[in-house]
Amino acid sequence: MTVNNTIAHQRLILSGDRERFKELLRRRLIECGWRDQVRMLCRDIVKENESGNITFDSLVTKVTPRARALVPDSVKKELLQKIKTHLLTQKDQ
Amino acid sequence: MKMNTISSELSMNDLNSKFFEIMQNEDNAVEATNFIYDQLFDDVTLGILFEFHHGVKTGLTDLIEGEKEEEEPYKIVNTSECDVFGFSMMKKTPDSNCSCPNCERPVSATRFAPHLEKCMGMGRNSSRIASRRIASNSREPTSYAGLLSDDDDDADWAGGSMQNERRKRRIKNNNNRKPNKMHNGNSRNGHLNNDANDGSTTYETMTANEKKNLLLHSCGVVSEHTKKFCTRSTRCPQHTEEQRRAVRISVLEPSTPESQMMGLTPDEASSPPDSSPSSSCSSSSRKRDRHRAPPKMKNKRERNISPSQRE
Known about the structure:
The complex is a heterodimer of chains A (93) and B (311). Helix content of chain A is 85%, strand content 0%. Chain A is an all-alpha fold and 93 residues long. The mean pLDDT of chain A is 86. In chain B, α7 crosses α8 (155-183). Chain B: GO terms for molecular function: transcription coactivator activity; zinc ion binding.
């Protein structure tokens, strides 16, 4: 249900909590070395692209799927857990 | 369409009520959580990719991470012409060869100064020979002139002429002794060197006897570079026994019967000179040498004892 998801997302943005979660995810991914892995990926892709003129879009389409697979389960679980409890606890207010 | 209307038209209160309504169902909450997580992840990835792309485009990444490593930083070269770093080991002789202005012979740059010294007669050794030669050539007329103009009784002048005479005699002795020494086997290397340098420098210009004498006392191997023969002793370490033998064979071949008569086979020639008594010439010279030896010693001793006499 995209509408429901959008509503939840919208409310999270308005409350400002989305920024908190984003910062948390970012920090966790840096801590676990995911960012460095993604950088290596990017470098390899740039190297493969001989001309050196790689567009940002092609970088995103090439890197994002692999980057998604690289995220450690612990980080993902933690984030999901925290967002879910946040959403559910909001309900009670 | 519907989403847009919701997000744009819903007031904060409406959104809140809707939200609580959705969250009643936990499945909805889980689904929303996954959706939000994906959104967050995309955001973070985008941020990092922006950062990276910016770095690549502006060259910041290269600056921060340093230059790329070379594929094979220190490859060891394993060919025969180069050393391990791949540099050529060939000597730069063509460049560094100079020709001597005096004798027009190609000389390696590192040996140029020593060669010049010898060639132009500026060395300690050669200068002595040269001065002696000059003296022997130029002194005779002057000394005769001195003797002829004997009118005045100048003591200094007399002493000078005396000295000149003595020196002359010594020079004469030297000149007389040299050929003899060539025959007997006791000549020192220095003298032999001088003789070789004074006289002809190749075998072609020598007589058979000279060749034989030279080969008896010295190595005689012809150098490839200078085309001169080696004037060191028969045991000189620079050349091998085979080289010496080959030279003896090639040099003495034209006069084979003669050399055989004299008992100079290559084998004997390469052996020390004292062990070849069969040659009549050398044996006679040995006798002479024996006769001569004692007075020579005496002379030496006298000179040592009374050096004032010489002056």
